[in-house]
Amino acid sequence: MNWVIRIPSSTSNLGAGFDSIGLALNLYLELKVTQSETWEFIPVSDCLMDIPTGKENLVYQIAETVAKQFNYGELPPCRVEMQSDIPLARGLGSSATATIAGIELANILLNLELSEEDKLSIATNIEGHPDNVAPSLMGGCVIGHFDYEVDWIKVPVEDVTFLAIIPNFELKTKEARAVLPDSFSYQESVHASSIANVSVAAICQKNWRLLGKMMKKDLFHQPYRKKLVPHYEELEAFLEEDVFGTFLSGAGPTMIAIASNATIEEKLSSWKEAYSHFEWLPLQVENEGLVSMKLNVSY
User: Per the similarity annotation, which family is this (predicted)?
Assistant: First the structure.
């Protein structure tokens, strides 16, 4: 048995879309799966060299969780080659791709025949919210709500660039969660929600400039988390005249600027030169999510 599983990365929150809006991006985690005598995870990419290579690997842990959920015992052992171009702990959904990979691995090995809705439900229950797992599973922009079940809408996105600006330090989600307030007043909640509502409408109408305006007004997470990213306000001001808007990707520390394809072509080289200590990565939305293929040849 030979399988290839490919999952796109994601960005989430998009300012006021906290824990509910995510976009799939064209960076990928890919697994090549072959039946074996023991479980072994082989990192192929540099960014994965420190991952666990046995059953303590996150992908296996998720697959085992799914197996137990469906009352299965041991998973048949496999050799899994893992390749990724998704930076770890940078706010680009690396853990969500591992979650989707683990669910699909169990689905294949145990012949569970899970539907897309089944996979989304399992992934969201594991993650606690759908913002990264939903787009990685289904592609495009997914706006979701989770309360025992997941309600969601997928919006295809094209003809705009999401420019990831990646620093050389990590920011753990736990640290980024710790700076958020415990509660809002009723008046604050209404105000913050109105910003989020307009943000969703702007995405659906592809009104990127309005979305950028709403992202800057966000009250849910950016005012608190950008303090953990020392260069945030400087870079936001530097790019402001040329891009539709800038936001903190997921929990950070990656920033993403939304810009026209023409602007990226014209300006990217000078931006890279001005801030050469960052990685500048122009990305497109991946409108196809999880891809799982059975191969008839060995590798």
Answer: Belongs to the GHMP kinase family. Homoserine kinase subfamily.
Question: For 50-92, what is each residue's pLDDT tens digit?
Answer: 899 999 999 999 999 999 999 998 899 999 999 999 988 788 9
177 labelled ligand-binding: no
Task: Give the whole-angstrom CA distance, residue 15 versus residue 13.
Answer: 5
Structure-token pair, residue 2: 């030979």
Query: Has 90 been labeled as part of a binding site?
Result: yes
Q: What is the pTM of this model?
A: 0.93
CATH of 161-283, one of 3.30.70.890, 3.30.420.270, 2.40.40.10, 3.90.180.10: 3.30.70.890
Q: Is 89 annotated as a binding residue?
A: yes
As a whole number of angstroms, the distance between CA 222 and CA 15 comes to 7
Is 181 annotated as contributing to ligand binding? no
The answer to the question of whether 173 is labelled as a binding residue is: no
Q: Does domain 2-154+286-295 correspond to CATH entry 3.30.230.10? A: yes
